[in-house]
Amino acid sequence: MIRLSGDYLGYFALPCLGEVVCGDDCFIRWEPDRMTVALIDGAGHGPAAREVADLARDVLSQLSPGETPENSVQALHHRLHGTLGAAVVVASLSLDGFGWVGSYRAVGDVGIVVAGKEIKRMPVGDGIVGYAMHSHQSALPLEVKRGEMLVLVSDGLKATVFDSLVLDKMERSPVEVARRLVFEHKLDYDDSSCLVFFAP
Ligand SMILES: [Mn+2]
């Protein structure tokens, strides 16, 4: 069980039933003027998936500050070559007058939504990072207004996970939201993870 909590960012993950390590992980980097968040789902589960997630985190942490989601995913694709690959979403956001704006790139079986008055499901590209990916897909714009919530999930959560997504006033921390979504929607045969950002 992995937790990472903060006022604005929360991550919660559980390994696949029967496994002690989790092949899902997150990456977060704060820079003076922006934030990069990523969710990584190493293909399969268990130690092999964990290794891919570790490598992916290393790659992301070694990138220059300010690297775009597009280039970050390209770098991952290059460096994960020869592994089983991963599904990945990388988003980069900066604060402006109305909230957080930037872009993201998502490849494979991952989910990304922006939840406010309505739930906006963001498009995700086909492929497996490190194995087969359409290099022509570019990053897409992403906007998370103040008071909205950005949610990233791995495919270890049921596809219905976003149906129950409401901005519940009782849940004051993003890690509580992430934890609830994982426990309520996890599948037993895969690692499950969720990253939540409350846009301040
Ligand atoms: Mn998975």
In short:
The protein is an alpha+beta fold. It has one domain (2-198): 4-Layer Sandwich (Phosphatase 2c, domain 1). Helix content is 20%, strand content 40%.
What key attributes describe this structure?
single chain; alpha+beta; six-stranded antiparallel sheet; five-stranded antiparallel sheet; binds manganese (II) ion
Structural features, described:
By secondary structure, this protein is α+β, with helices and mostly antiparallel strands. It has one domain (2-198): PPM-type phosphatase domain (Phosphatase 2c, domain 1, 4-Layer Sandwich). The protein is 20% helix and 40% strand. It has 3 helices and 13 strands; from the N terminus they run ββββααββββββββαβ. The strands form 3 sheets. It has a 6-stranded antiparallel sheet with strand order 1-2-13-12-7-8. Strands 3-4-5-6-11 form a 5-stranded antiparallel sheet. It has a two-stranded antiparallel sheet with strand order 9-10. The two termini are 27 Å apart. The mean pLDDT is 91. Bound molecules: manganese (II) ion. Residues 41, 154-156, 190-191 line the site of manganese (II) ion.
